[in-house]
Amino acid sequence: MTPYFEYTAEEVQTWIDLRGLATHADQRNVFALERDFQHMIGRMEQAAYDVLMNKKNWRSTDTARREVWFPPAGTIGADEVGYIVKASTPKMTSLIMDQWGDYPLDLKRWTTSDDWWPKTELQYGAPLGQVDVVHPPAGLAVWDAEDEDTNDPGSRDSALEHGPDSH
Predict the structure, then answer these.
(1) pTM confidence score
(2) Calculated CA dihedral for residues 102, 106, 111, 112, nearest 10 degrees
(3) Of the ranges 5-14, 83-92, 124-133, which one carries the lowest mean pLDDT score?
């Protein structure tokens, strides 16, 4: 994976360990729930796209990369410092979590009265961290959601349709 995002072996091992605990819960006394890994999903997806779009030699165990793709927004480091590429227009989403920080709330599914809400002080997850505005590394294309609807050879769908080595 790209050095720009500062993935560590320890971070990736945590993902692997949680995957086993989440997918084999029917056979274990200790297992993982969504709340145990929900906060990591965006970072895991970023890593997956990084490998998919930048791997140089498919059907090979080598780690050779090509440097062609860089997302317009994402995270750097296990502390998940956010970044946005200058002059890009990324789509951003956020989850509102329950008062324990365990599960996302879907406020479209129900309504509540004022007296329903817990009387305890809400505990918020990690404080909003730093978000840096960066320039993409030289030579890397910045993928934009608008690219999905085009036949641009630099787009994600084009790369998936034509294969990662078609550029």
Answers:
(1) 0.66
(2) 10
(3) 124-133
